[in-house]
Amino acid sequence: MLKPMTFMPLWIAVSGAIVLCAGAPSRASLIADGLTYTLFETTVSSTEDQFTLDITGINGTSDTEGSRYGVNSLAFSEPSPGTVTTGSMTSFTFMTGGLNAMGCDGTGNFYCFKANTKPTAPALPTDGSLSFTFDVSVDQADAFANYSPDFKIQWLGGKSGKYDLVSQTLTPTPVPLPAALPLLLSGLAGLGFLSRRKAA
Fold it and tell me: What are the pLDDT digits (tens) for 150-172?
């Protein structure tokens, strides 16, 4: 039978694993103009989620536009109209409203991030990648449940004419967390080892 002091760390480890699984990220991917966009979503609280947008294949052989300098603006639809209250992303300014070919336009049921410094030459490396992490808060608990955001992004680069304004839907799906299991098991094994040493 476990002693009370032995049971407590064991309970903490199991609770920690449950919390890890409850905050498991979701992801969605789409391919547009030869680039792969992958969105990860992780719950921070009932009214705040953190998102990471990974973009790969930039200026690579599959990139149908190429010569890209960087992202000037990106936008996502709100879970429902008027629910988003704030957002933050390093080196970008948050504003409500969507975007068009000129950038964030302040209209529609979207939230938008505009680069504080407009991307300029030189072009990004061949087969390069970018990653953007941002937090978004809403005014209704669990507004992000079953959230499938419409996504828009504005690129700048050396190509003559404008780059396609990507406008597609991303539907996040749960990411399996097999990696959490070894952590839990190793933690439990360590606790068992410590309790045996104390008992000896």
Answer: 999 999 999 877 899 999 998 77
3-state SS class at 72: strand
Is residue 53 a contact partner of residue 42, using CB atoms and an 8 Å limit?
no
Let me know: does 186 contact 44? Beta carbons within 8 Å.
Answer: no
Domain count, the chain: 1
Q: In a 3-state reduction of DSSP, which class is residue 115?
A: strand
Q: Is residue 15 part of a domain?
A: no
> Is 16 a member of any domain?
no
Distance CA 150, CA 69 (A): 24
Q: Please report, in angstroms and rounded to a whole number, the separation of the first and last CA atoms in the chain.
A: 15
Confidence of residue 25 (pLDDT cuts 50, 70, 90): confident
* DSSP conformation letters of 21-41: HHT--EEEEEEETTEEEEEEE
Q: Which CATH number is 66's domain given?
A: 2.60.40.290
- Three-state DSSP state, 193: helix
Domain that includes residue 174, residue range: 24-199
Q: How far is residue 89's CA from residue 87's CA, in Å, rounded to a whole number?
A: 7
126 vs 189: which has the higher pLDDT: 126
Q: Are 110 and 77 in contact (CB under 8 A)?
A: yes
Residue 45 resides in a domain? yes
Dihedral class, residue 143 (left if φ above 0, else alpha if ψ from -120 to 50, else beta): alpha
Residue reference for tokens 């969105």: 39
Residue 13 lies in a domain: no
